[in-house]
Q: What sequence folds into this?
């Protein structure tokens, strides 16, 4: 859907992902040590095996319908979670459950607030999450999920958005200084508009994207900047 745009800015995205042209020390460290990090992490083997198992038993069309995350994105999601180390995690859309595993792998004390009104119909995600269910709260109402997450003890928060949701909800999370990750920008124009709307709303903080996945860090101590990168 958005491939021509991605090809046109490919060189600048690749150049920026090496840290070139980034003047913010915070952004430089994030891009170099989180976004573009190539060193192995302990969780990579398990994520690779899980994604490989799902790929072995599904067709390309099924994987698309299930919204199976790619291995590079799953690793990035783990690194982002590892960097911010949230104790509370909101996930919008269960997908295949791989994202949940990637995020929960970071901190054994973290808790996942999973909003998906069709979760009961997603047998694969339920099966993947089986071993983590004691750390997962499931919701069919997004507002209730956000309320429950925000009312718990203070601590770092992260939200992963796999499917369209009300932008007002994301603004509320950004106001609470929750880091937001939005996927499927290149597959769903609604998701792309959601990201653009959040970018326009954030008064401070930084965003990082490769036009497929985006990370919004609303830290009020950071100057407002957007970084277009490669993954």
A:
């Amino acid at each position: 859907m958005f491939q021509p745009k991605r090809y046109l800015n490919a060189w600048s995205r690749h150049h920026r992902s090496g840290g070139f042209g980034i003047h913010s020390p915070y952004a430089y460290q994030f891009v170099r040590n989180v976004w573009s990090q190539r060193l192995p992490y302990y969780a990579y083997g398990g994520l690779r095996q899980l994604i490989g198992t799902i790929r072995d038993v599904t067709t390309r069309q099924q994987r698309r319908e299930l919204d199976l995350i790619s291995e590079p994105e799953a690793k990035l999601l783990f690194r982002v979670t590892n960097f911010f180390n949230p104790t509370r995690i909101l996930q919008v859309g269960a997908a295949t459950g791989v994202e949940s595993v990637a995020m929960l792998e970071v901190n054994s004390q973290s808790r996942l607030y999973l909003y998906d009104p069709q979760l009961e119909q997603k047998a694969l995600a339920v099966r993947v999450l089986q071993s983590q269910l004691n750390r997962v709260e499931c919701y069919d109402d997004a507002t209730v999920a956000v309320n429950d997450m925000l009312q718990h003890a203070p601590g770092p928060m992260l939200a992963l958005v796999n499917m369209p949701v009300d932008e007002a909800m994301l603004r509320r999370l950004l106001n609470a200084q929750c880091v937001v990750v939005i996927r499927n920008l290149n597959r769903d124009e609604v998701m792309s508009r959601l990201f653009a709307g959040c970018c326009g709303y954030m008064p401070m903080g930084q965003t990082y994207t490769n036009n497929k996945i985006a990370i919004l860090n609303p830290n009020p101590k950071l100057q407002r900047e957007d970084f277009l990168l490669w993954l």
